[in-house]
Amino acid sequence: MSDPSRPVRTAAVIPAAGRGVRLGPGTPKALRTLGGTPMLVHAVRAMAASRAVTHIVVVAPPDGPDEVRRLLDAHPLADRTELTVVPGGTTRQESVRLGLAALPDGIDVVLVHDAARPLVPVETVDAVIAAVRGGAPAVVPALPLADTVKQVEPRPQGTPEPVVGTPERALLRAVQTPQGFDLPTLRKAHEVVVEGEGATDDAGLVERLGEGVVLVPGHEEAFKVTRPLDLVLAEAVLARRRATDGYV
């Protein structure tokens, strides 16, 4: 992956350009507050909590990089973590590609993390990094499914949908972020795989290259804040952390 005599450097890219309409109208999802602090700030802190992460690129809404920069400057990180803010694109894949382009030279491992997963524990971040450094080109944290999943024949919303299959739950996992990659592998995936070809995350792009993707254990608290009920749960998790762990 790189010169073995040189320390492996890790960076994180956080795409935060989405509007998050399922969470309701208002400011972009990543800028909604959680415990009085924007979710994006929590997500940035979660990446910076890993001592392996030396640089974070936040990909802001196309019309909002200055606002995001001011927001993050008001919540400074430790000196060991550099922070860059760049404008994003019209799609998530384009935004991640712009974030990768903003990385400094010398980065070997890159994490891609959803801003809407503000409470991922540092142990999960470190486990992903360790697996990439161990030789895996792509690593995803994931959890076993608790619910049975049905495959259906889609119908218009509100219309009963015929069931066409029941996948074996023991073989399925719910994926989370941060997803970790050997940087050249992820860059190649973004260059080669055409948007809309069926990949719904960065690991899916790597899969379409024919490269291997491995899973490491995820964490219950790395859930995605997508709907109002998710925000209620996140507030409860944050309140517990502040009460028991001294979390800021």
Automatic annotation (TrEMBL):
- As recorded in UniProt, its EC number(s) are 2.7.7.60
Q: Which GO terms describe its molecular function?
A: nucleotidyltransferase activity
Please state the pathway this protein functions in, per its UniProt record: Isoprenoid biosynthesis; isopentenyl diphosphate biosynthesis via DXP pathway; isopentenyl diphosphate from 1-deoxy-D-xylulose 5-phosphate: step 2/6
Transmembrane stretches, start-end: none
Question: Which reaction is the catalytic activity of this chain?
Answer: 2-C-methyl-D-erythritol 4-phosphate + CTP + H(+) = 4-CDP-2-C-methyl-D-erythritol + diphosphate
Enumerate the InterPro entries for this protein: IspD, IspD/TarI, IspD/TarI_cytidylyltransf_bact, ISPD_synthase_CS, Nucleotide-diphossugar_trans
Q: Please indicate which residues carry the site annotation Transition state stabilizer.
A: R22, K29
- State what this protein does: Catalyzes the formation of 4-diphosphocytidyl-2-C-methyl-D-erythritol from CTP and 2-C-methyl-D-erythritol 4-phosphate (MEP).
Listed name of the protein: 2-C-methyl-D-erythritol 4-phosphate cytidylyltransferase
